Amino acid sequence: MSESSYNILIVGAGIAGSALAHALSASSPLPKSCQFKIALLERSLAEPDRIVGELLQPGGVSALKTLGLRSCLDNIGAISVHGYCVVYEGKTVHIPYPGKHEGRSFHHGRLIQALRAKAKEAEGVDVIEANVTELVECTLTHRVLGVRAKRPGHDSLHTFFADVVIIADGCLSNFRNKVMRAPGTLSKRIQTKSHFIGSIVEDAKLPIPEHGTVVLIPGSGPVLLYQIEKRDTRILMDIKAPLPPDLPAFIRETIIPALPSALHIPVDNALKKNRLRKMPNSFLPPMLQGGDAFKDGVFLLGDAWNMRHPLTGGGMTVALNDVVVLAPLILSCPDISDPNQLSKLLERWHWSRKPLASTVNILSVALYDLFGADDDNLAILREGCFKYFELGGDCINGPVSLLSGIAPSPSLLARHFFAVAIYSIWTLFTHSRAYPSKDYQKGSIRRPNILEYPGLAIRSVVVFWTACVVFGPLVWSELRWW
């Protein structure tokens, strides 16, 4: 069995792994006090094909600039993104990014290949195609010493030793539980409420060009559309478990009628031409690493450690910001092989990343719970959220700054979330809505009268409590460290 040694070993050449390999190299623009020998291992270096990870928020673009990787967005057919358009019951609201901020949308695999190319060019980095099969541990202390991997064209396993092993093998991580002293701890924390069903729509005309489009669908989860190339538009349809047995029929009956009319034929054509692909929408809150629950010499990065609902397109922004925060800590660490120093480093990283990561994590799930409302109280909050956006001004600039990673502030998120809850209650009393009529074919549209106020007051309390039930546990999941 052959072997080789490195200072740092990164398992997984995706967004986070490739960016970190470059950031820790001698080619990185980040200040450094030491130089590492780095191995970046990836099971397959062929261009990956995924239906998510195709929209990079302005905060992610800024992180790429900081890491000296902004050029990775060039020459991959990327489309400029200037904000969002939200569609609800035939009405639209325009939510532009503030100032001159821009995001990018693209085919996921092309950005990955560009990041890998940068890692290959980086001084001190070896990018190696190898399928990691197991962690190498000390039999006495269980400290992780490296990995064993199978390389193409080789019959025997190769052992890669390193001072530190970083696991960045994505949402379906094979090693998420193996870094824990108590197996299964992290997997038990994963929550999967729904799936994104994705396809490519050709020559689609979105309501506002170069904007992500979110359509709120009665009786189903939200639908997200964004252009990823000149003629290609990605459609992601959130469908809750259990999935219907006939997905195309469900989409034609429930989803297509709620889309803008210009999209009906292109989406139907996509159903006929392209296969539907499925991706679980999972939530995994971050857990403080480096303590007694984790083995020494190894830690997790990216979706292997922390996932959020992809509705807000914040996953890559969080991953790249994690690299921006983590890389300088590693580069300034006197001895990364020392478990005590590594533990302190990981604790500092855990809390330093919180402003942006917590904001995006909480917002993604909270917004999904509102947009995918599955009870009457959440439906009131969903309608109130849309009407809150219609107010414009700070009611748009604040939320989109949070979503885009421009304003990493959990306190600002809490202010806007509960402003939405209060405004939703206000609309119960002041806005016209449909009421049942004696004529079963018609319903009257009117404002509530004063006799209905006591009942609405009770409903208001329940709606506000529902908002607390949505928001509170998400905040707690970010504050807890065990």
Notes on the protein architecture:
The protein is of the alpha/beta class and 482 residues long. The protein has helices spanning 15-23, 58-66, 108-121, 247-255, 264-273, 315-331, 339-352, 354-371, 376-390, 394-403, 410-430, 453-479; strands spanning 2-11, 38-42, 55-56, 79-81, 83-88, 91-96, 103-105, 125-129, 131-137, 144-150, 158-167, 191-202, 212-216, 223-227, 232-240, 277-283, 298-300, 433-436, 443-446. The strands form 4 sheets. Strands 1, 2, 8, 9, 10, 11 and 17 form a 7-stranded mixed β-sheet that branches. The model has no long low-confidence stretch (mean pLDDT 94).
Secondary structure elements and their pairing?
Elements: E1 2-11, H1 15-23, E2 38-42, E3 55-56, H2 58-66, E4 79-81, E5 83-88, E6 91-96, E7 103-105, H3 108-121, E8 125-129, E9 131-137, E10 144-150, E11 158-167, E12 191-202, E13 212-216, E14 223-227, E15 232-240, H4 247-255, H5 264-273, E16 277-283, E17 298-300, H6 315-331, H7 339-352, H8 354-371, H9 376-390, H10 394-403, H11 410-430, E18 433-436, E19 443-446, H12 453-479
Parallel strand pairs: 1-2, 1-11, 2-8, 5-13, 11-17
Antiparallel strand pairs: 3-7, 4-7, 5-6, 9-10, 10-11, 12-15, 12-16, 13-14, 14-15, 18-19
Helix pairs in contact: 1-3, 1-6, 2-6, 6-7, 8-12, 9-11, 9-12, 11-12
